[in-house]
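Q: How would the C-alpha cells look for this protein?
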Amino acid sequence: MTDLFAPLTFNHGPAMKNRFMLAPLTNLQSHVDGVLSDDEFTWLTFRAKGGFGLTMTCAAHVQAVGQGFPGQLGVFGDQHLPGLTRLAAAIKAQGSLAVVQLHHAGMRSPKELIGQAPVCPSQDADTGARALTLAEVEQLRDDFIAAAVRAQKAGFDGVELHGAHGYVICQFLSPTLNRREDRYGGSPENRARLLREIIAGVRAACRPDFNLGVRLSPERFDLRLAEIRDLAQSLMSEAAIDYLDMSLWDVAKEPVEEAFKGRTLMSYFTELDRGSVRLGVAGKIMTAATARQCLADGADYVLIGRAAILHHDFPQQVAADPDFAAIALPVTREHLRKEGLGPAFVEYMNTWKGFVAQEETV
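A: Here is the predicted structure in C-alpha cell form.
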C-alpha cells in the first residue's frame, strides 16, 4: 500500500483525507502567556490549506510550569480558549483534522522561563529539577486530561500526548531518569502508568468520537528500545488510542543500540500487531519517494516536519508531481516568509545549522 492519497480511518472521529500529517513543530510564535498569535494561526492554517490530512499544533503545555520554550502555545487555562477555538475552526474549514499536541517539558523547562526549579519524576542534578510529589504526579495527570477537555471544547478533533523527546512523559518512561519507589516508578509497567492513566482519563472525559494519539521516541533520552517497542505493542493491542506517532529522527536509520543493529529502527514498529491502531513515522521525509517508501515498509501515514516548513503545500506538490522533492537547503528568509513563517519562526530556523542562507554583510 503506497497510496499517499487514500483516506485513513480511525477508531474514533473522522478520517484523514490522505496520509500526510503535519508534525508538531516548535515555532516560538505564541504570546508570552501562551495565547495564540496571528503568526502561529497563519503558520498552521496555511498548512491545512496546503493539503495536510491532519494539522497538529506545536507542543502546547498543560501547566504553566511545564513550558519548554519561549513563545509556546498554551492549553492550561480558559484564557487560551478563544485563540484555540479560532484555530480549530480555520483548520477544519480546509478539510484537515485539527489536533492539539499536549506537552509538559518536565526537567527540560528552563528555570529562567518558568521562574522556579523544573520538575522531574526524580531529582535531577544536571538540570536542577526537583522530584514531583505523588500528589503532583496525580495533578499532572489530571491537567493533561483537563487540557484534552479544553481542546475538545475549542472544537478540535483530537489531541496527541507528547511522550517523546525527553519531556515529562518520556522522563517517566526512562529507567534512569525515573527512580521513583511509588506506583509510578520501578517496573516498565509502573513507569508507563502516568501515560496509561492519561489515556484512560481522556477517553473517559471526552466524547466518543474524540481522536487520541501518542508520540513516542524509541531511543535516546535514557530510553531502552526493547521497552518502547513493548509499550508500543501494548498500546496498540489495547486500542484505546487511535494512532501511534513514532519520532525516529531518520526513517531509514538503524537503531543506536548494538543488539538491534542490522535493520531499520522503523521495522521494529511496523512489524508489531497494530490491530486497528494506525502507525505513523517521522524523520527526514523530504521527498514523495521517501513518503511512499514509508507506506510500502508498513507505515499507515507519514509525519512531515522540515519539508512542511519549506513547503506549506507539500501534499499538494506531491499530488501534482510524484517525483517531488523539497527545495535544497539553505533557503532564504524571504522563502520562509512566503511559506507563512513569522519573524520569530524565521529566526528560530536560523539557529538550525545550514537551514537559512546567511546574508552577506557589507
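The chain has 14 helices and ten strands.

The CA atoms of residues 236 and 285 lie 24 Å apart.

Upvote if useful.
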